[in-house]
Design brief:
disordered C terminus
Length: 462
């Protein structure tokens, strides 16, 4: 009893204290940042730059950790006029995060942002433009338009890149400015720096993707810059150039041509019946031979090294380009990079396998040497297993069917009922396509009918 009494006394004495921050019944018990935020406001109101810098570092740290720092907006926005460049940089980092949420307060600082666009520091100029484009109020559209036009002529490529990124934001805010924005995009497309290329192509695709005429005079420059552009810029440029090539260049695989300057010839040539007209046929065949446009070849040649990129999105963008725009004989170049990506994350595997499943139906001979790469693993999720099963079924030939069927025998016993049922269906498809294994497949299916699993028996009967 003495122990409990002393414990109760300690609890009462603690509860009678004036410090509410340690009282569990107080709301401030759950908001430990209250005092800290109050201290930060005092530091931001200080006349010493060192205190302001320390406060801004802590605030940006809070934002980076996902903590809500929106209540500090009034105290922070006042420091946008600070003469200390380090403080100003961090203020703009904060404003970029909260300008869209606190639009009324941000509007009060518009004139300050406009002055910051003339700052000697390129990072300040770019940050000011980024904050300005984050304020989603239609009334400031003309101000944003002027800011973007001025930034396009900036000496710093980083500021010009920021201007390109601001174009889609302004277009979504005020679509009536499209004509003026197209003029700005046209000027940025002529920019020769790699830093700007990816952003301006993104703006082009969002604002005026039908204006292919803007790409004509910049096509070769974009092809040559491609290798040096940042990875996500490469994805955007390759996607745009793929669309461009499909609409502006002839299909290299049309009319039985290989795209390498030679036409496909029939396997049998009845020389006896056509000996008299052989010369005329050769002349007509020569006239029909497709010669690839040098600009088309430039695109394929400059994107080929990107198949070795560490970024899966870049590799798949090049694969898409080759699939739609390259001669079928050159598609073999994309096979190994795709197989390499199968060792990546599951999400990447799923995308790659979906593409392989499509390509394998038409170009199975390119994927046959990599058959083992498509074997199902025990840790594969169901959708990946089904994709691999589809690929293996497509790649089945008379020479490889025995190996594939042995693999299927293991899959049928899987605890994954959906996968086991799909395997039985795949065996049936193989039996109908390859006559040599029809009888063994039928025998195997009949044996499966004796299994206790209703799903397996049902699929075997079907």
């Amino acid at each position: 009893m003495s122990y409990n009494a002393s414990g109760a006394e300690r609890a009462l004495s603690a509860g009678s204290g004036e410090d509410a921050s340690v009282d569990p019944s107080s709301s401030t018990f759950f908001s430990g940042d209250y005092k800290k935020n109050d201290d930060l406001k005092q530091m931001l109101d200080s006349s010493k730059d060192q205190l302001k810098l320390e406060a801004m570092k802590r605030i940006v740290g809070m934002v980076a950790k996902g903590k809500d720092a929106s209540d500090l907006f009034p105290a922070v926005v006042k420091n946008v006029v600070s003469k200390n460049s380090e403080v100003k940089k961090l203020v703009f980092v904060y404003l970029m995060r909260y300008a869209e949420e606190q639009q009324d307060l941000a509007l009060l600082s518009i004139s300050t942002f406009q002055r910051a666009l003339k700052d000697p520091n390129q990072l300040i100029r770019a940050s000011a433009l980024r904050v300005l484009s984050s304020i989603r109020v239609p009334i400031i559209s003309p101000i944003m338009m002027i800011a973007i036009k001025d930034s396009v002529q900036d000496m710093s490529p980083y500021v010009r890149k920021t201007a390109a990124n601001a174009i889609p934001k302004l277009y979504s805010l005020d679509p009536e400015l499209k004509d003026e924005l197209v003029q700005v995009i046209e000027k940025l497309l002529a920019d020769k720096t790699t830093l700007v290329a990816g952003s301006v192509v993104t703006a082009f695709e969002e604002v005026c993707p039908d204006r292919i005429d803007l790409i004509h005079k910049n096509y070769r420059k974009l092809c040559n810059l491609l290798v040096d552009v940042d990875e996500w810029g490469q994805v955007m440029i390759i996607s745009m150039l793929t669309r461009y090539a499909r609409t502006q260049f002839a299909d290299p695989n049309k009319d039985g041509t290989n795209g390498d300057g030679t036409a496909e010839r029939p396997f049998y040539d009845d020389e006896a019946e056509h000996s008299d007209a052989s010369e005329d046929k050769e002349e007509s065949a020569a006239a029909k031979v497709y010669m690839m446009d040098p600009d088309h070849r430039l695109l394929l040649r400059n994107t080929k090294p990107l198949l070795q990129s560490r970024n899966a999105a870049v590799v798949m963008a090049v694969v898409q380009l080759y699939y739609h725009c390259a001669p079928s004989s050159e598609l073999i170049n994309v096979v190994r990079p795709m197989v390499r990506l199968l060792r990546s994350h599951r999400e990447v595997q799923s995308v790659v396998l979906s593409n392989v499943a499509t390509m394998a139906q038409k170009y199975k001979n390119y994927f046959e040497p990599h058959l083992k790469s498509f074997y199902v693993r025990s840790n594969d999720p169901t959708h990946v297993r089904l994709l691999k099963l589809e690929i293996l079924t497509s790649l089945a030939t008379e020479s490889s069917i025995s190996t594939i069927l042995r693999e299927f025998q293991t899959y049928v016993t899987s605890s994954d009922k959906e996968f086991a049922a799909a395997t039985i269906q795949a065996i049936g498809r193989c039996a109908t396509r390859i006559s040599e294994v029809t009888d063994p497949c039928l025998t195997g299916l009949v044996n499966l009918m004796s299994k206790k699993d209703e799903t397996v028996v049902g699929e075997s009967v079907v």
